[in-house]
């Protein structure tokens, strides 16, 4: 016992001024003398004290000024237990407000209060539902290790300093709505049950690393001027994250999600790498650069881009538009970008309305089961001839979709017009396997034309792969040159015309004896041989030399061959 402790039954509480007893044990006369000594702005020291609501109410009324406001200088309530319904309504704490390790046994109300100094609620225990509404915190708020057994309604407030809710436990209902957080907010390692963060503004970002979120979690109509970080957190039951507007990055990487969920976000960047989604998840992204490396989708899930601004239901039930003021000032993307699916399991994933031009598919598991819809955007081949010193000149490229891995490979090989090589540039064989998986994905969905470009890319990489036998590479080269792997009708047509004209010229010189037909007559004759079952003009046929007969047999074979390649290319482009 110290000189300031109560003398009643070894009570550890602070004694009242000019008495030997604490607030709980003071006689009525001692309590009256204490109250009479009070004035607005007085410092209150009730440490390790059992405080009952009836005496606290009398003290607060005594501190009310002529303007009707209650003013407390500094308040020290740490390690105290407050009994009864506690109401701090319209109170101005002019200095520090210290409620560390306090226990509130009945409902507590902090309404329309102003905290001009730091507000300390570390380790506090609210055993019943607590209302902290319409308050203003001018400096830091600390709720570290606090426990709200029956929930908390933290709404309509403004916080100018940092807010620390790390390791807090909201065990039933947590309403954090219509709040303006001017500085950083920390919910790391917090346990949140049935919590909602609606219609709020986080000017300094939100961190909730390794948090445990369960029950129904809502976070809609929220604007974040910095970063949201849920790294390493777990979500269970039902989760509705969004719509959110995030100027920085939304991080939900290394998380574990069980139960259905929906995420709607407009952010500069969105990272969900190494997260496990055990149940169906619907992720709607607007205007973001998205990364999804090492993600597992355990049940059918959707990752889709959104072109329109998100809407949400306000607290009044009206339809609100998510504000994106100040976000993405330079460019609004028609399709959000997905930059990586590396090492993810996409067995149950559908991707729609995304820009996949820079997406890395390397090491993606079950890529052939990925479903793509909504006209995803891929990179395109270079549009024109390019020459650059020290690099291979680019050729004339037929227009087709290409994946980022081919772009990296060609850049690493020195092809002009291709950019993107890095230290992890894949081999041609690896790129071929990725194209094969994406082709299978489109074919399984009945999208033959969509699979055509991926088939072309697969054959291109097989043609360049050192793992392909030389004989097979030679056959693939001819297939590419004559018909673009059965996908370029123009090449087959050019082959048909070139063969006809060149052999017509040769036969004009060596193919006939006894007559001298014109080049046009010879060309028409050979064309009829190629296209007709009759074999062409009988007069010219009777004057064929051995060389001419050889040309006739060759053209009778090559004509249907080139026509077949052209028809095959047309069919591959239009079939469903």
Overview of this protein structure:
The chain has 576 residues and is α/β, with parallel strands linked by helices. It has five domains: 1-113, no CATH class; 126-196, no CATH class; 224-368, no CATH class; 379-468, no CATH class; 489-574, Helix Hairpins, CATH 1.10.287. 25% of the residues lie in helices and 27% in strands. The radius of gyration is 38 Å and the shape is rod-shaped.
Features:
16-stranded parallel beta barrel; 5 domains; twelve-stranded parallel β-sheet; rod-shaped; alpha/beta; 576 residues; 47 strands; 27% strand
Sequence-ordered SSE layout with sheet pairings:
Elements: H1 28-36, E1 42-45, E2 50-52, H2 53-62, E3 70-76, E4 81-83, E5 86-89, E6 91-93, E7 97-98, E8 103-104, E9 108-111, E10 114-115, E11 119-120, E12 125-126, E13 130-133, E14 136-137, E15 141-142, E16 147-148, E17 152-155, E18 158-159, E19 163-164, E20 169-170, E21 174-177, E22 180-181, E23 185-186, E24 191-193, E25 195-196, E26 201-202, E27 206-207, E28 212-214, E29 216-219, E30 222-224, E31 228-229, E32 234-235, E33 238-251, E34 256-257, E35 261-271, E36 276-277, E37 281-286, E38 289-291, E39 296-297, E40 301-305, E41 311-313, E42 319-321, E43 337-340, E44 349-352, E45 371-373, E46 379-380, E47 401-402, H3 404-413, H4 428-444, H5 448-464, H6 470-483, H7 489-510, H8 519-531, H9 538-541, H10 546-574
Parallel strand pairs: 1-3, 2-4, 3-6, 3-7, 4-8, 5-9, 6-10, 7-11, 8-12, 9-13, 10-14, 11-15, 12-16, 13-17, 14-18, 15-19, 16-20, 17-21, 18-22, 19-23, 20-24, 21-25, 22-26, 23-27, 24-28, 26-30, 27-31, 28-32, 29-33, 30-33, 31-33, 32-34, 33-35, 34-36, 35-37, 35-38, 36-39, 37-40, 38-43, 40-44, ...
Antiparallel strand pairs: 41-42, 46-47
Helix pairs in contact: 4-5, 5-6, 7-8, 7-10, 8-10
